Amino acid sequence: MAPDRRIRWLFLVLIPCLLLQLRLREITEPYPAILLPAGASLLHSTGDYTAYETELMAVDRDGRRYPFATAALLDAVPSNYYQYVIARGLGTRARDVRKRLGVQFGRPLAPRQIAETKHWLRSKLRSLLDVDAARIDVLTFAVTTTYTTSSPQQRRALARTSSVDLRGDGQ
Amino acid sequence: MRPMLERLDRWIHGFLPVSAEGLALSRIFFAAYFLLIGIPTFSWISANPPGFFSPPPLSLAAAFSTFPPEPLLLALDLAICVLLIFLLVGFKTKTTSIALSLAWIVGNSFRFSFGKIDHSIMAVITPAVMAFAGWGARYSIDARGTDNRAEVKAWPLTLLALFLGFGFFSAGLPKLLGWVDFDLSTQGARGWLVSGWHDLSRRRLLAPFFMRIHSPWFWEAMDLSAVAFEVGVLFTLARRTAFRAYLFVAMIFHLLNLLMLNIGFLTLMPVYVVFAPWERMSANGGRARMNGLASYRAMTVALAAFLPLYLLRGRISVDTAANAFSHLGIAADLNGAFDYNWIVTLVVIPAGALIAVALAGSATTAMKAERPAGAGGKRIIFFDGVCNLCNGYVDFLIRRDRRRRLMFASLQSEPGQALERKRRPTSGAGEIDSILLMEADGRVYERSDAVLKVVSALGGGYRLVAVFWIVPRLLRDLIYRLVARSRYRVFGRRDACRLPTAEERVSFL
To answer: Residue A33 needs a FRET pair 20 to 30 A away by CA distance; which of B51, B409, B476, B504 works?
Structure first.
């Protein structure tokens, strides 16, 4: 029995599509796509490796700080996504919208959505800490490890502080 | 152009062998795996505020402005759960498989809307691809009441292999461009280890051991191996044996990743299992059937077994086990860092490795030969007529083959000699080195393949010998050869070739 030619064409069309995904990934990674994680960054063995740890603190109107665990605030988010949510100001900062070849990739976050997110964060902190928070301070610590010796040396230092303002409606 | 297209057709439709039973078993494994490891759920997503919503710009979720409401996601969870159960029992399998993949993709589009895409795509698309292979044609509700002759197709397996190969290639290409620099001061694999250690607290198993390795040569070798593994996969798609060997290497690679980087690749396991030589594990040369009642019984037992496991999921940990031991007065100092998923990982990965070993080692090389006259459609066993061990084995088979489905002939007989000349044209009439099994279609199996196929063909409890297919053929045949070489010395030999008794004559050529 002769093979079904439609299957041949399916393969002939799919193969260039698979290759196209690789090019597309350079602009923005699509989903779904037949792509597996690359992770091609390099460690320079003669230098240091710096990892970043974040600590969150609620700050009330009088400036008092209340530390809390990230997992307590983001309890409905898988832990491997924490850094991405925190990097976007816990959802209070505009989304990454890119324009390539005349096409806009991504939608901006509406002010109403920002206000809703701030309200959600305030409510969550109230139930967690019993605090009416005015902002959340995000303290980023750099943990630097030196691998030039056989027993790695480690040091931890505050690298930067940023704040997520919970007041206002985001307009 | 035409010969090239014909070659492409041959590859598409003949790259990997398929059997209805094999496909069905991989379907059952796939569904059972996710029912056991964890059904994908998405309703938790709706508990997050709209500001957390940052979908991949090129995805279904990008058409939305925020996370969907809870009832919608709850319905999706329920649908996936029901579809997995339908897939397990093979109910409307083709539609179920496609619907499962679609539902999973929709759910993942929202799951990956926190700013990161996880790469579990191979498991997600497997049901949709395999739907076209006919993996519901056996051991299923669909197969009940039919003549069990539903058509199975090989091209979806080729397509899945292509997807898997391309997936690895997509992971390897950036590494090829970045890691292969022959600069001992830059290390990619070590970068994974160190970043995982610090950023994600991946410090279990052998991670501490590898953290102490500072040799740049070691890490450069690791980098080159990883690149060769991930990029080299495309070349293995040219040959079935190379691809199966690749899957074996892949299991080693994943095992190493688990031990060193604490990355489990759990969702790839059921995908690899689709490529396992399942057909060898079914009795009667892959023509086994599970009739209606038996299949329902098996499915009921499977579902009943899954229920408590699912309920216990997430509640079992090594700590729980340690507590249980302490109640019994047994001190157990177990590392509480391991949870249920880790235990499963430690079981699943070695089990997967075993299957992979079987993949690489069990490829049979059955030759085809002309069947001698007078055997009808029966299997013929050619044995060494002067060997006491072989004659004992033949006696064993004759006693149990009540339906007379087997025929026997000594390798010293005329048909036996003709077959030996075809099998070993250059070695002449040397010492007999193997029992042979000739199937109804003329395929001839030798050594341990022949032994296992014949014993499992007896049916009943003898089918349990099928578990030995998991042992690589290289190892099985090594044991076979050791026994075969010493068979005369240990078990003795006859002076003359065996002659069948009057009662046995119907079973002999």
So the answer is: B51
Hey, is A47 helix, strand or coil? Answer: coil
CB A71 within 8 A of CB A146: no
**B297 membership: H or E segment, kind and range:** helix B292-312
Q: How far is it, in rounded angstroms, from Cα B417 to Cα B394?
A: 18
Q: What is the CA radius of gyration of chain B?
A: 27
Chain B CB within 8 Å of residue A92 CB: yes
Please state whether beta strands B379-383 and B406-410 pair in parallel, antiparallel, or not at all (unpaired): parallel
ipTM: 0.90
Q: How many CB pairs under 8 A join A and B?
A: 199
CA-to-CA distance for A136 and B228, rounded, in angstroms? 46
**Residue pLDDT, tens place only, B437-480:** 988 888 888 888 888 888 888 877 787 777 777 666 767 888 88
Structure tokens at B65: 């402005």
For the stretch B266-276, what's the b/e string if a residue is b when 16 or more beta carbons lie within 10 angstroms of its beta carbon?
Answer: bbbbbbbbbbb
Answer yes or no: are the C-beta atoms of B379 and B439 closer than 8 Å.
yes
| Rg of chain A (C-alpha set) | 23
State whether residue B454 is helix, strand or coil: helix
Contacts of A31 in chain B (CB under 8 A): 56, 58-61, 105, 108-109, 112, 117
Residue B425, both tokens:
């044209």
Residue for token digits 């293995």? B236
Beta bridge partners of A103: A100
Concatenate the DSSP letters of all residues of B85-102 into one string. Answer: HHHHHTSSHHHHHHHHHH
Interface check for B109 against chain A (CB to CB < 8 A): the answer is yes
Cβ separation of A106 and B59 shorter than 8 Å? no
